[in-house]
Amino acid sequence: MNITQKINDAPLVYEVESLERRIQATDLDDSHADPIDRDEVYELIRNINDPEHPLTLEQLHVTNREHVFVADSASHVLVEFTPTIPHCSMATLIGLCIRVRLLRSLPERFKVDIRVRSGTHQSEAQVNKQLNDKERVAAALENTYLLDVVNQCLATAA
Questions:
Q1: Which residues form the MIP18 family-like domain (predicted)?
Q2: Is the pTM of this model over 0.85?
Q3: Where do the domains of the chain lie?
Q4: Fold of 35-155
Q5: What angle do CA 16, 21, 27 make, to 5 degrees?
């Protein structure tokens, strides 16, 4: 990915957390369906690479576990993210990367909502509308260049 002029030349970089999941007996039983939880969803998105910097969304505190909400019984996931700056032009792309990662990883039964955290972006309503409109997301993913950028951001994700 070659972005010549960065929107945020010097982002704050945070230490990443060690996420150790508790293994339960039911986790090892293939005859039992394990519920999807916050930790599992966070594990899917924390290592997505930022489109502008060689850092993960977790390292930039764009995503964190406390802003992932899962209702397994209702088949619903909500992820809120925080752009590094209030006028971040990459916010929609970051949200698209999160959405694509979850759509590719979670069972099809899940409804996925992606939102900019309230009060963290000057165009929050517009970004949220774009990220949660199926037609806009589908159109964005038909753009070969944009899909290549998304795939590059996801390439580092576990």
A1: 38-114
A2: no
A3: 35-155
A4: GMP Synthetase; Chain A, domain 3 (3.30.300)
A5: 150
